[in-house]
Amino acid sequence: MPADPRVEQIRDLERARLQALVEGDIAAASALHADDFQLVTPIGALLTKAQYLGAVAAGEIDYLAWEPGPIEVRLAGEGATIRYRAELEVVFGGHHVARTGYWHTDSYELNDGAWQAVWSQATEIR
């Protein structure tokens, strides 16, 4: 059975989302995040799309590197869940966080014909 082409599409979108966040490209990042997007950070804070992208735009969150490993994708109708390990280096609230490994779990939904991230959670690997 051939692979569902949506799997690679979701992987490509996640890589594009990460690149937009590292580059601080808020217009590109905004298009890839649903209006009701929510992020649960590694320290347990909940951020809305406006809070998250606003912090990136203001430099409060400055991703210096975000390198994902293989991205696993599970499709369910008009939704997809992804999981992967990544190495991140970030400046958060003026504090440099050295390159560290994290597990990421994200949910995507098809909204008006476009896939968008709706939920994201990151957990530090210790």
UniProtKB/TrEMBL annotation:
It comes from the Bacteria. Gene3D superfamilies: 3.10.450.50. InterPro entries: DUF4440, NTF2-like_dom_sf. Pfam families: DUF4440. Residues 10-116 form the DUF4440 domain. This is DUF4440 domain-containing protein. It comes from Microterricola viridarii.
